[in-house]
């Protein structure tokens, strides 16, 4: 059958209409898919709102955030009230004044402060609801599976146009190039407020969060899972060198890198290996082991009928209580940059049940890696030594037993820690630092600016806003292209602390501070069933816990307690006179190095 001219034209027009219709529909579907894919890539949901993809864009679930609106940006009146009270309290707690000291000492202010700040939606969500399996949605499996870490942020979706969302370069520069350009230490940049004792105490404290691949809460495993019981009067096994007791580790002394321990693939007790081979953490571990044995001696005199198990368990309760008190009342205020100490009062959490998880989120753990806080050298009894010579060596022939415990602790107390800044990462930790950056990329952790928004801080608009100088602008621009494309790990390592209140940037303190506060106050020992004299072996043990101080912890466990107490040097803060002396000694060492180089040339 042949078609006439009119029928042919009609058929052609029909085909054209069908083709155009199919093209329009396909284009609309592609556009819809593009909008869907890029909707959550820009992380539009604020204040803890969860982004849910739709065919045309996204939807923000704002329930229980204290905010509402399309992007959870509008605060409710209750949120407005609580957040502003929190800001006022944070200003007050940062200023040392008579009124605050009075309230703090009378147990009025701090519990009230915690009850307000612990519930407000202004702070980061400290319960991890995301897994590390690359999924960008919440699930129950990370909460049930304690053999896997949890996250407080969803992964950046794989279909996003850039590694961290929608801005910046299409791909990251290789990690070695980023490290050499931005992180590799050129000269040591010292802190003006914190000492090396603050850094090492914190590092030893963080070891308890890790155990065979788990990111646990405050288990005190760095004290009791890594030391050997003597099964005699509740004590831990020690060995004597130079008239002093030191922990015993039955481990091979092979040299390893810290990256091996971060991978957590070995079944060996790698935490104990760190304590054994890193003489800095070995110093803190020695103090705690000696304190446990000292408490056992006190309990044995008070209760001669108690067996080994009861002495051990009660001493463990007391020492754990001391750890909670010292960490919260002395270490935590220095970490946060507060002007005064706090009083440990777990009354807020003294309930039958606690719904707050103490498991450490992976973002917080990675943010607590501080390769720029460790100096290249420090001085003990007028003897300057390079830390690199001893950092991973067996303590049996290290400085610990050469100079004695107190001399080393005093040296840590008078030596400044490092400052978070560009090009200030210790060279011996270069491989570990690269590994941590790679881990952040592998887990597709959101950008540094995104994390600032999550913890209630204003994101940086430009590189100058972040660095407060134009010196590094061109380098950062070349490396990342946009300030919203800076990796979370790298931002943590280079963000300067402008106020110099502590050694760390404000993002780290706002991320880790609320989590640590809740973890300390919701520890099982602080429950209404445990936080009482009977748990601590009576009034004497109860007084040891409630009067715990860093100075007492150190001085009661060294050869000459009277000299230690009289000198009054043991603190987490770098004292002004010691700061000047350290600056002078550092200048002398730099001049000597220049003279030596010129002589060789």
Structure description:
The protein is mainly alpha-helical and 601 residues long. The chain has helices spanning 5-39, 77-93, 98-105, 109-117, 141-144, 175-183, 196-206, 221-224, 258-263, 270-277, 279-302, 308-336, 362-367, 399-403, 405-414, 430-442, 448-454, 463-467, 473-480, 488-494, 506-521, 539-546, 550-555, 561-567, 576-600, and strands at residues 50-54, 57-61, 67-68, 74-75, 190-195, 210-211, 214-215, 238-241, 244-247, 377-380, 383-386, 416-418. The strands form 6 sheets. A two-stranded antiparallel ribbon has the order 1-2. A two-stranded antiparallel ribbon has the order 3-4. The longest helix has 35 residues, at 5-39. The chain is globular and about 75 Å long. The model is unreliable at 18-37, 105-113, 115-121, 250-270, 350-356 and 593-598 (pLDDT under 50).
The gross shape turns out to be globular
The share of residues in helices is 40-55%
Quantity of strands, as a count: 12
Average of pLDDT:
76
Largest beta-sheet characterization? 2 strands, antiparallel
Number of helices: 25
**Which structural class should the secondary elements be placed in?**
mainly alpha
Low-confidence stretches: 18-37, 105-113, 115-121, 250-270, 350-356, 593-598
Strand order of the largest sheet: 1-2
Relative strand content? 5-15%
Radius of gyration: 28 Å
How far apart the termini lie comes to: 101 Å
Give the topology.
Blueprint: H1 5-39, E1 50-54, E2 57-61, E3 67-68, E4 74-75, H2 77-93, H3 98-105, H4 109-117, H5 141-144, H6 175-183, E5 190-195, H7 196-206, E6 210-211, E7 214-215, H8 221-224, E8 238-241, E9 244-247, H9 258-263, H10 270-277, H11 279-302, H12 308-336, H13 362-367, E10 377-380, E11 383-386, H14 399-403, H15 405-414, E12 416-418, H16 430-442, H17 448-454, H18 463-467, H19 473-480, H20 488-494, H21 506-521, H22 539-546, H23 550-555, H24 561-567, H25 576-600
Antiparallel strand pairs: 1-2, 3-4, 5-12, 6-7, 8-9, 10-11
Helix pairs in contact: 7-11, 7-15, 10-11, 11-12, 12-21, 12-22, 17-20
């Amino acid at each position: 059958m042949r078609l006439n001219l009119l029928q042919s034209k009609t058929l052609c027009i029909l085909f054209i209409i069908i083709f155009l219709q199919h093209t329009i529909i396909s284009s609309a579907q592609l556009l819809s898919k593009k909008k869907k894919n890029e909707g959550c890539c820009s992380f539009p949901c604020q204040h803890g709102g969860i982004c849910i993809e739709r065919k045309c864009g996204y939807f923000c679930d704002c329930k229980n955030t204290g905010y509402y609106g399309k992007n959870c940006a509008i605060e409710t009146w209750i949120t407005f009230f609580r957040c502003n009270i929190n800001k006022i309290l944070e200003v007050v707690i940062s200023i040392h004044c008579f009124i605050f000291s009075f309230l703090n000492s009378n147990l009025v202010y701090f519990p009230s402060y915690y009850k307000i700040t612990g519930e407000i939606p202004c702070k980061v969500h400290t319960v991890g609801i995301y897994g590390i399996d690359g999924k960008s949605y919440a699930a129950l499996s990370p909460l049930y599976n304690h053999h896997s870490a949890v996250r407080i942020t969803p992964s950046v979706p794989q279909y996003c146009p850039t590694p961290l969302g929608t801005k910046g370069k299409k791909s990251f520069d290789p990690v070695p190039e980023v490290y050499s350009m931005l992180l590799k230490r050129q000269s040591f940049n010292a802190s003006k407020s914190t000492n090396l004792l603050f850094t090492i105490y914190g590092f030893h404290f963080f070891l308890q969060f890790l155990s065979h691949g788990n990111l646990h809460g405050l288990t005190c495993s760095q004290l009791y899972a890594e030391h050997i019981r003597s099964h005699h009067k509740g004590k831990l096994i020690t060995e004597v060198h130079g008239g002093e007791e030191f922990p015993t580790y039955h481990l091979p002394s092979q040299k390893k890198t810290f990256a091996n321990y971060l991978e957590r693939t070995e079944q060996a007790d790698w935490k104990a290996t760190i304590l054994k081979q890193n003489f800095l953490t070995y110093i803190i571990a020695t103090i705690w082991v000696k304190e446990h044995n000292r408490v056992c001696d006190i309990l044995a005199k008070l209760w001669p009928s108690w067996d080994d198990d009861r002495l051990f368990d009660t001493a463990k309760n007391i020492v754990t209580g001391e750890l909670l008190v010292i960490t919260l009342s002395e270490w935590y205020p220095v970490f946060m940059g507060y002007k005064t100490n706090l009083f440990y009062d777990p009354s807020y959490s003294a309930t039958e049940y606690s719904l707050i998880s103490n498991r450490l989120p992976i973002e917080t753990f990675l943010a607590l890696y501080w390769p720029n806080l460790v100096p290249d050298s420090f001085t003990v009894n007028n003897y300057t030594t390079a830390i690199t010579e001893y950092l991973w060596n067996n303590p049996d022939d290290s400085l610990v037993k050469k100079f004695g415990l107190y001399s080393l602790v005093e040296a840590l107390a008078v030596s400044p820690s490092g400052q978070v800044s560009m090009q200030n990462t210790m060279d011996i930790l270069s491989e570990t630092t690269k590994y941590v950056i790679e881990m952040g990329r592998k887990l597709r952790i959101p950008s540094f600016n995104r994390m600032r928004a999550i913890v209630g801080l204003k994101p940086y608009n430009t590189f100058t806003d972040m660095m407060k100088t134009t010196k590094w602008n061109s380098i950062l621009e070349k490396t990342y292209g946009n300030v919203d494309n800076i990796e979370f790990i790298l931002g943590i390592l280079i963000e300067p602390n402008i106020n110099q209140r502590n050694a760390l940037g404000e993002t780290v303190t706002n991320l880790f501070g609320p989590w640590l506060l809740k973890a300390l106050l919701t520890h099982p020992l602080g429950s209404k069933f445990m936080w009482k004299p009977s748990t601590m072996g009576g009034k004497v043990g109860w007084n040891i816990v409630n009067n715990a101080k860093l100075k007492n912890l150190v001085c009661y466990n060294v050869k000459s307690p009277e000299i230690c107490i009289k000198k009054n040097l043991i603190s987490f803060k770098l004292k002004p006179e010691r700061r000047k002396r350290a600056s002078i000694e550092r200048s002398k060492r730099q001049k000597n190095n220049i003279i030596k180089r010129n002589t060789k040339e």
